[in-house]
């Protein structure tokens, strides 16, 4: 579902200093619902080479992407994917198979069908927290010492903030 923090979580992974140096190439592509194979593949290529690509036709874009990835370990984030058609995915993934062992593709999506279509190795489902967990997360961040003896006024304000966060863990932190 929307607004649970999929993109934010992916951004944390993408910019985590612990993965620096593990990938020669890092690329981020927002896909959304307009899944045209040429457009998506070109967007991936442009993110990989960090410049505009004027190649004509899918074959040329595929070749350039393959040339830029071959033998290199990469991290590619495909954010907000809606496409569930396997044949379109196969076409996009073909040049991505030439990266070095250990390359990773991280896909954020609202539907579990997309995850099975891209044949993901691991799925992580983000869910909203229960109300009591929300308060614990918020209190830990807002009141560093996690003091249970908060004055009434502060606690009331905190509870209103927690309600506005609607159980979204990344909003609470």
UniProtKB/TrEMBL annotation:
- UniProt cross-references to Gene3D superfamilies, sorted A to Z: Helical domain of apoptotic protease-activating factors, P-loop containing nucleotide triphosphate hydrolases
Q: Name one GO molecular function term.
A: ADP binding
Where in the numbering of this chain does the NB-ARC domain appear?
2-146
Give the InterPro entries listed for this entry. Apaf_helical, NB-ARC, P-loop_NTPase
Mind telling me what this protein is named? NBS-LRR protein
Taxonomic lineage per UniProt? Answer: Eukaryota, Viridiplantae, Streptophyta, Embryophyta, Tracheophyta
